[in-house]
Amino acid sequence: MNVKTALILLVLALATIFALVCVLLTRGRPPGTCQHRPPEQEDPDDGQSLVFADLTPEELAQVVRYLQGNLGVQLVDASRAKPSDNCIASVDVQVPAKAEVLRFLDGGGARPPREALAVLYFGNQPDPNVTEYVVGPLPVPAYHRDVTVRKYGGKVPYHRRPVTGKEYMDINALIQRELRKAPRFLAACCESDGTDLAILTTAPRGFKSGDRTTWFVLFHGVAGTGYYLSPVGLEVLVEHGDLHISRWQLRKVFYNGQYFASMGDLEDAFESDLLEVVRIEKPQGEAVLGSLRPRRPPGSPGPMPYEPQGPRYSVRDNRVTFQGWSIAFGMNPNTGPRLFDIRFRGERIVYELSLQEALALYGSNCPGGMSTRYFDGSFGIGRFAYELVRGLDCPYTATYVDRHYLVESETPKTNQNSLCVFEHDAALPLRRHFSDSHSFYYGGLRKNMLVIRAVSTLINYDYIWDFMFHGSGAMEVRVHATGYISSSFLHGQGTNYGNRVGPHTLGTMHLHHIHYKVDLDVDGQLNSLETQDMEYELVKDPWSMQHTIERPYLRRERLEREDEAAFPLNAPMPRYLSFASSKPNKWGHPRSYRVQIVSFAGEHLPTSSPMERSVSWGRYQLAVTQRKEEEPTSTSVYNQNDPWTPTVVFADFIDNETITDADLVAWITVGFLHVPHAEDVPNTVTVGNGVGFFLRPYNYFDEDPSVDSPDSVYFGSEQDAGACRANSLACLPPAAACAPRLPPFRYGGFLNL
Length: 753
Known about the structure:
Blueprint: H1 3-26, E1 32-33, H2 57-70, E2 86-94, H3 98-106, E3 115-122, E4 129-136, E5 143-146, H4 148-152, E6 156-157, H5 165-179, H6 183-190, E7 197-201, E8 213-220, E9 231-239, E10 249-255, E11 258-260, H7 263-271, E12 314-316, E13 319-322, E14 325-332, E15 336-344, E16 347-362, H8 367-370, E17 373-375, E18 399-407, E19 413-437, E20 439-458, E21 461-470, E22 475-483, E23 487-489, E24 498-502, E25 505-508, E26 510-520, E27 526-541, E28 544-559, E29 566-568, E30 576-584, E31 590-598, E32 620-626, E33 662-674, E34 690-698, E35 713-716, H9 732-735, E36 738-739
Parallel strand pairs: 1-36
Antiparallel strand pairs: 2-3, 2-18, 3-4, 4-5, 4-6, 7-8, 8-9, 9-10, 10-11, 12-13, 13-14, 14-15, 15-16, 16-17, 16-26, 18-19, 19-20, 20-21, 20-35, 21-22, 22-34, 23-25, 24-25, 26-33, 27-28, 27-30, 27-33, 29-32, 30-31, 31-34, 32-33
């Protein structure tokens, strides 16, 4: 062996030893911390999106101070106000008229003045009423104007106002006083003196306009679990419409299929042995039906998404940007999430996308259940969007945003971390192809999307509101229902209205119908509505005339009038329905966006019902109307307590006006029928309980815009697919060889209860 060979072997040996030492030294060492890289800069906004922004706590406080000093009446804090007092019910942003906003955003016009909408309950007046004021300009208000008559055609009667927390407290006190009149019955039926029973409201409240008479359902209340699954069979009807609380009365009592005039009469029937009492033991601890406490110790952590180089989206003030998308977001305390000025690649696709209402309509053979039609906007879909639980409600590393509101108080409140933004990997290709003929290659793109999410807890139910933005230029809107089912006491023919889910618990059938407003501006404000569907035609084979073939062909139609574009719920609808611009794409087709609905809605309330007009939006799975500034919402918070003379009637929006080359709005209803079953205990699961719709580009582009995605993957048979330069997936092992910096887990969601 010569010296040169020996030196080479020595060098190789030293290199091997060095490599082994490196492995031994690094084995067991935790990965390094991920180094965040700021997302690519999107088009500058210069604060323009703030024209849609929710009011800040400082602005809310300024509006309250202005109203206190400039209305000339005494205002009582709504948290303490009696029905006979004047109070501020709520304050929210007054979004400027669309024409003003577009002049500012697109035409270089002046920024519209920032204004608030204040709702006041005037109980201390000769003619008690609800009045709405626009207050401005912010941040230092100098004027207010009454807009009630302009919006609603007259003053809003006082009985239509939503029930406040203080009113519920006073009702509960009345019920407790009445329960004390039947101590022996309560001890026998429920092992209770009444003070530990939970009380659940129903709605609406009566049979005719002006009524304010509500059934309240009583349940066993056990701390740390949902009482909704433990009815005791007792329900009471309370009349609470008088301005003077002392005149409120208990009007009727229901127990186990029987009605009584008072709790005293119920007690007398019990003592006279004229009442069939079902003795229900008070639930104890873990034995209670519906406990969510874990039954097993924690296991190993599940998979968790993280961003090796930090978020690829940006959240600034009320604006999110992500790979060509730009969205302004907000939260209405009544109706919930609202998005504005949704753009893709700099072009506005949607001016407004907002939740309008969530209806839950029940069936039962108990009075509370059979009369319940919850209009959740009147309770506060946005107000009750509480803090999200990091790592469960949203990914641990999502961006969490606080929302501020002022409802039934003179002091602004904050639901911290109540809206989240994150990029979601669906673990599914957005598109892909493996070529095994002619030439051999693979091309594809992961289905990653931006998600904006909030979750509202409305009494027993939790609604998960998702707005998703895809690399293909498509938008997806989805709602999932979870939480506790509502229930009735099982008696008689109760299973005609649901399933038994506990010893004395009937899971009552109900429907969830959700309504959205979508103001599409496809390549400009002026759009038309086009439909496409298939039919078959029987034709002779051109190459064999003695034979025939059933050939599918495309039937195209342009709808001219609103009546043509009002599609009844659950009725057949054209499979392709698009908002079309007058401008063509490269291939000569109108640039369009398609509305695609995914829904399993129940049956709408019969139009013969005296309260149907209050939810007449539910007649239609889709209705397209001309956009009008005086038709901003499909319903009103005042419809809940007076559905017989509704303040806003959506059906009146459809008056057969032209929808050709006009500014159009799509009003979309989605929903599902829910027949509760054993597996809804303890909670309804989200699996199968999600509905929504897509807004998909249809000839809007000249090709799929996702081809420009930097995440695209392509490699051929002649390339080394494991080389980073040839395949970006091969870059992942070194890029992801780090640990995310997780913030400590904290939760403050119980602060505003």
